[in-house]
């Protein structure tokens, strides 16, 4: 799925669950679960060559920009508040942002393979699992509908 969908899910779960020992494994599992659902994302078409690497990279930058906007719209804060909470070690108030980050980890570790042809041995099993569980469609309407429903639900219950 789009970074937008994964990160919003991660932010939501972390905000609700609060305990990182609980939310980090659940958020990582949510990433693979969401990728299992038929979807469209910026990597769609990369493996069969219908989308160019440069194009996917540009779309990913846009996706990540929108992701930051959405996560901070769902859980508003200021750079000053974040800094204060980091220095005070108040990790619970930072949960949505930590959750959003962990929700993207499976894609971050695949990025070197997708964009720079670098797939080191220690990432290979994880990337193979990610790829195996992934269901995508070039049909944007079909592939974006489940993500729009998901985002609407997350926004509503945040
Ligand atoms: Zn993924």
Which tags fit this structure?
mainly alpha; single chain; binds zinc ion; 158 residues
Description:
The protein is mainly alpha-helical and 158 residues long. It has one domain (3-157). It has helices spanning 3-17, 20-36, 53-74, 79-88, 95-108, 111-116, 124-133, 140-157. It is globular. The model has no long low-confidence stretch (mean pLDDT 93). Bound molecules: zinc ion.
The main sheet comes to:
none
Proportion of residues in helical segments: over 70%
Extended strand count? 0
Bound molecule types: zinc ion
What is the residue-averaged pLDDT? 93
Low-confidence stretches: none
User: Cα-atom Rg, whole angstroms?
Assistant: 16 Å
What is shown here, in short?
By secondary structure, this protein is mainly α.
Write the layout of secondary structure elements.
Layout: H1 3-17, H2 20-36, H3 53-74, H4 79-88, H5 95-108, H6 111-116, H7 124-133, H8 140-157
The site of zinc ion has 5 residues, from helix 2 and helix 5.
